[in-house]
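User: Fold both of these, please.

Assistant: Here is the first one.
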Amino acid sequence: MLVSYPALFYYDNSENVKYFVNFPDFKNSATQGNDISDAMLMAADWLGLVVADMIEDNKDLPKPSDINRLSLKNNNPFADDPDMDLNYDPSKSFISMVTTDLTNYLDSGQPIKKTLTIPKWADKVGRELNLNFSQTLTDAITEKHLSRNK
């Protein structure tokens, strides 16, 4: 199950780790990366961990912001903190959607056995499609949980 949220990537050449990444839809969100690839990887990992924790704790997920309404300047995560100053190079900073696959983060290490009943035709079609019924049900539950927050 994939989820996507916009992230702000601030580039600062004076820092050892060049990219500071913030997700405006999540309070106090931050990660960083040495270069664009590393920053994207770290952002996807951060997003997967946080969203999976929220799902497992049955918390509502924030609705993703419209990426076209975001601004590096106007969405400065430190705008209200006089002790923090965000220095960045606007020519190398950017806003991007970050996508992650939640199946890599949700707690699948503790399976719980469930017995269910489905129509005979559904069992036949599922077997013909080589479906993993447990994974199909898990995906459907995750999708239902995510869609209630849209």
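And the second sequence with its predicted structure:
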Amino acid sequence: MPTGDKQSPTAISDSRASGGASRVDRRHFLQAAGVAGLGSIAGCTGFVGQAAEGIEYWTLFGGGDGTVMEAMVDEINESDEYSLQVNRQRVPWDDHYGRLYTSMVGGNPPDVAVMHSRMMAEYQDSIVSLTDEIGTEPYLEEVAQGGVVDGEQLAVPLDTHPFGLYYNKEIFEEAGLDPEEPPNTPDRFYEAANAIAENTDYYAFDYFEGQFAAEIMRMLLHGRGGQILTEEYEPAFDTDDGLAVVQEMHDWVHEHEWAPVDPGTGWDAWNRGEVGMKIEGTWHITVVREAGFDFGMTEPFVMPDADDPVTLGDSHMLIIPESEDRSRARLEDAIEFIRLLTQEFNDRWGYDAGHLPASEAATESEDLRQSETWNKTLETFYGMVDGGQFIRPPATPNVEEYVEEIYQPLDDMRTGNMTPEEVIETATAGVRRTFN
């Protein structure tokens, strides 16, 4: 997630490394680079094994949450209390998993890295288990389980970052709506969207393109009792409920004309204060603060006939990739660094970066609960997680490939090049092809 969005000890033997490489099924990368070239490419990642002083930490956070992460790492480095030296390297979002995979296969992984919980199945064979070192007890149970594979804690949760429905209170007032009555049911959402469309010159609504469009589909479908995949990785959305969800997403643009055809137009208009409502994640609070308009945030329960509405959120997890060269002392430093970020500093990750902290203690801390961020967004996000109205994207093989098979037709539908029925047919065939 643009921030949207757990691991283990010791050596990778030759057999374990090849097993990890096959498990981490980075097919497109392998086709482009060739297995024989991976070692040399790994040397170009900016990290040369264990030669660096201190532990190597790879993160993908940019923007507001990147600034917060940088400040937390700087404080750990500068404090005599922790006796740690952390070399933080920010890897661009689009490059993060390619570089991480290359470093792991090439034998030069970082000591700690950020990983989304949905990616766990692809990397699980090459991550250090932290079950005995940290465990899941300090964390929100539903969030912590995203880092558990076959009973082993392979990743430690830093946060969860669900979707919410942000809304522009100034546009609500102009449309004759009560800005203190959040549009958190389908009826209220429809009432607000229609009022904005009829009484203002603004777009009523905007939503994601790409990967997160597929995750909105998953979220809305789950609320109607459906799912994207079966446990056997078969597509499960070629149903009446699946078609109803895709039809709804189509109608936001082409029937009601609440949302623009071009997502870029919607994003720019939202930041100018010219869109009434927008589905976004926890991270988005830093954006709307800078945009400068008065905003609210509420549950994204917008789908008609959804008896059990939910939000959807991945988690940023911290993992320790396996390495033959890492000393025990370096491993212990990596474990302590993960503990600090996910426990001691976790409430700051909430009130400064906007993500829902994974630590139980952090969610109950006075500093967090008295913060503006708690009042504006995190109290609502926490209520959904604590109230059982939260799901995670499942960790499966071929995550990026199968999700792409869903979002590409959704994006084509938004531009007017596909019908909802064609989206279901095309995406079903693409998902089945991915896993077969």
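The CA atoms of residues 127 and 211 lie 25 Å apart.
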